[in-house]
Amino acid sequence: xxxxxxxxxxxxxxxxxxxxxxxxxxxxxxxxxxxxxxxxxxxxxxxxxxxxxxxxxxxxxxxxxxxxxxxxxxxxxxxxxxxxxxxxxxxxxxxxxxxxxxxxxxxxxxxxxxxxxxxxxxxxxxxxxxxxxxxxxxxxxxxxxxxxxxxxxxxxxxxxxxxxxxxxxxxxxxxxxxxxxxxxxxxxxxxxxxxxxxxxxxxxxxxxxxxxxxxxxxxxxxxxxxxxxxxxxxxxxxxxxxxxxxxxxxxxxxxxxxxxxxxxxxxxxxxxxxxxxxxxxxxxxxxxxxxxx
Amino acid sequence: xxxxxxxxxxxxxxxxxxxxxxxxxxxxxxxxxxxxxxxxxxxxxxxxxxxxxxxxxxxxxxxxxxxxxxxxxxxxxxxxxxxxxxxxxxxxxxxxxxxxxxxxxxxxxxxxxxxxxxxxxxxxxxxxxxxxxxxxxxxxxxxxxxxxxxxxxxxxxxxxxxxxxxxxxxxxxxxxxxxxxxxxxxxxxxxxxxxxxxxxxxxxxxxxxxxxxxxxxxxxxxxxxxxxxxxxxxxxxxxxxxxxxxxxxxxxxxxxxxxxxxxxxxxxxxxxxxxxxxxxxxxxxxxxxxxxx
Lengths: 293, 293
What we know:
293 residues; 9 strands; prephenate dehydrogenase (chains A, B); Rossmann fold; 6-phosphogluconate dehydrogenase C-terminal fold; alpha/beta; 2 domains; 3-stranded mixed β-sheet; aromatic amino acid biosynthesis (chains A, B); homodimer
């Protein structure tokens, strides 16, 4: 039986933190939720929707007496928040987060919460959405979704187990890996596709007749470039935060494109078929494994 | 009033040709449809579904007395078919096709039907689907879809007008451009996205932990790589058929990726934001123009 949280504090009260709160409330695993944020309208909406019980603008005051603090802001704001809350955390308070890069967040824990590392459980719930804000929070967001925890060497088994059990109570499937592995995996299957899609769009825009080209773009283009419409500031931050893993994979994409260009220039039909076939087989197998996506 | 076709012959009786036939039948613009194909089961199914009225294995015999011949096979089979039918076409018979590359198909018309060029109307209906075969044919496939016609200098206004009106009767929006422009446009927004997606998949597969990476791939990956699951033979043919336009655009993608790599290596946050912003704005504008795709 998972121990219930008396006081949960959300630093940042958007989709990710809000849905975490709603799921824990439904599971009766939390008594009081305090939401901290800079946007008053969003906090008011969060109270109306019962995502939080109490709103606050002051992280330092809010975390006093908390059992669990969830950092749900963009990673770029987490360091300043950690610095603010550090002197006010109870000795037993667990700190976790929803940041989508983990080596940099682990560094922030080390820098700003050096005395609390045994209670820190870096995490990454994989549940992106185009929506944001407290009003986008839903009870079932984490049902069947993956959550990756990347514990620090100092994180105690007890802290880790609590965060794991809370996510499981939200319906999530919890994985553990080190932050380096995490960042490599997400560079490969999330960050780099975004960047390749941005680069592709800019290649189209560099054409003299780009407007005519875009006029004839169909469903293949639509799907391939959907992620190219993502938020620039968010993706600049992710890109710079996960620089080394991303650079390695982007260079590997250049190598692959160069190999493909060579095959086409040689008119090497057999090798070209094999090249496409390898990609196509792997993509089809992935889709089947995920029930025909 | 569009002149009705007494005898339409489909060379290749799959989704594209079959849906053309169904739409013309519904518009009462065709009296008899003969379907030619190598797959007996598919032809039987085409008759059952009233996609065609008569099945044949012999292109030369089938086209006798035809008013319109539609080449609906992969481009790689079109040359041999043209050679077979050339001596048997009536003087008034219009020949058109559904090939997705056009410079190479125009060359085939010149090579195999040099005496009938005034009646030849190369075309490209933009209505891809994962499905294939006569049983995938539907009445409404071309409703609101684009069809590009790339007339030869020899094509008469009358031949062009007839094919244009038939496609319009299918509900399609008809455009005209020369074959070179067509191939450039579709390299940019269809062929190259497929190839970049293949290259990306192969970059993931080249990683030591590719299985682990694919395990954490989410909706961004799903959409970005959907076209990577496309048919290898079909895409080898398209790639080799449209080599020069494709090579130019692939090289432009390498240039863009290299520029992006440089920005990341420099940690140039402002330029990186501007780079992503340009792509993101353009993609969002495209999506809005197409009613939020």
